[in-house]
Amino acid sequence: MTQLSDRVGETRRSDAAARDDVKAPQRTVAPREKVAAGELVDIAMTVNGTDVTVSVPARMHLADVLREHLGLTGTHLGCEHGVCGMCTVLVDGDAARACLLFAVQCEGAEIVTVEGLGAPDDQHPLQQAFSAHHGLQCGFCTPGMLMSSYDLLANGPQGTKVDPADLPEEMSGVICRCTGYRGILDAVADVAAEHPEGLPGPRNCAARTLVGRGGGHSTATPGEEAAASAVAGPALPQEVRMPGGAPSATVEVTSALSAPVEKVWAVLDDFDQLARCLPGAELVEVLADDRYRGRAKIALGPVKLSFEGLAQVIERDPADHRMRVLAQGADTGGSATQADIRLRAEAAPGGGTVLKADAALFLSGRIAQFGRALAGDVSRRLFEQFGEAVDQTATTGTAPDVSAGPSPVKIAMGAALDAIKRGAARARVRIQEAIRTRRAR
Ligand code: FES
Ligand code: FES
Question: PROSITE patterns in the record, alphabetically (predicted)?
Fold first, then answer.
């Protein structure tokens, strides 16, 4: 048996001078059985308000778990020696260097990363101030600067009443390679002055919402809860859960189908037929409460992912031909995806159907490296192929064979085409702006 009772926060304030007298938070972690070097350990913690359980080697540090297993790549790694401060996150409310913490030390801890500080459309005052004061150049140090300054203003001895003259020393624990310190310090001083009563808390931390049978609240036992909340690793959830915060990507696809709306709805309303129309998907088991267990595979160039997961129809309106499906899956490589999908079939003039698919996608792990634009492009291609398959099934009564999944070449070409279109649209806007500016002179 080993006893882990370690300091989990190396720096509460980020200044190098404070390291000597730092009052690091103390956490006592329940004893664990000794594990072999390559053996995986289950660790349950709360990250940005969401309960997660990861299965990782005991020697893996928190920053790697956040980045590689949870897809939270906002936590940067510079030195991995506790020197540069890039990896600063909050552990149980205090700043800590995630490269100096083993993830197993964080069992039961509440972690907040820069993603939890604010959302793109609801930024924390610190994020707004960094932008207003040009407090970043390449941006590599920005997550560390933000989390460190958050800790300083929220937990420092003077809080937001910190003397601006002390900021250079207080903030010296995070190193900016671009040396853009002036804007950073101005931003922190501004936020401190604007919030004399205390710094507002993180804005993008939310518990997952349990949907379906739970009616919005978890009914699972703690053990089931842990299994259901896993977002990394291949463990299959019992309920579909959606994370809080902004999705990784959103897509809207409208397809014109030749089949009449009633026949299209008949395909959508039959989950077995619907699954046959999803490229690469396979229905494995029909469960109670409109829940379905299945597999899906996707290949993009050399990246091949195979998901096992759960889908749940949470709204089905035959009169309006609309339905809403939540899906959640994970692959053995640590990728996880969740999707909130709305399908609607509308009668089109001439007897055909307009099929609309809207999806909000939440990606983590290796799949998150696709990036927002590419994930959106790939999903768009999938829904386009889905529309074609639904049309064929509704027209002929037989689903085409899409079990092999979407063609990687077709996806890549489609994605490239979309990227070219986006680039051309951006160039058009820039040219129009330049013309407007010239005319205004
Ligand atoms: S990466 Fe953690 S302190 Fe440098
Ligand atoms: S802005 Fe580039 S490292 Fe700080």
Answer: 2FE2S_FER_1, 2FE2S_FER_2
Query: What digits encode the pLDDT tens for the residues 412-440?
Result: 555 556 666 666 777 777 777 777 877 77
- Pocket test residue of 140, 148, 172, 188 for ligand 2, highest count of atoms within 8 A of CB: 140
Q: What top-level class would CATH report for the domain 2-194? A: alpha beta
Q: Average pLDDT for residues 337-352, to the nearest whole number? A: 92
The 10 Å Cβ neighbour count of residue 166 is: 13
Which amino acids bring their CB within 6 angstroms of ligand 2? 136-141, 176-178, 180
Kindly report the number of other CB atoms within 10 A of residue 431's CB atom. Answer: 10
- pLDDT bin (cut points 50, 70, 90) of residue 69 is confident
In the reported structure, the alpha carbon of residue 372 is separated from the centroid of ligand 1 by a whole-number distance in angstroms of 26
Domain ranges of the chain: 2-194, 231-406
Q: Are 373 and 419 in contact (CB under 8 A)?
A: yes
Copy the structure tokens of residue 89.
């996150």
SS3 for 62?
helix
Ligand 2 atom closest to the CA of 138, numbered from 1: 2
Q: Are 63 and 73 in contact, with CB atoms under 8 Å apart?
A: no
Q: How far apart are CA 252 and CA 321, in angstroms?
A: 17
Of 383, 248, 394, nearest in space to 321 by CA: 394
| Domain 231-406 grouped into CATH 3.30.530.20 | yes
**Ligand 1 atom with minimal separation from the 100 CA:** 2
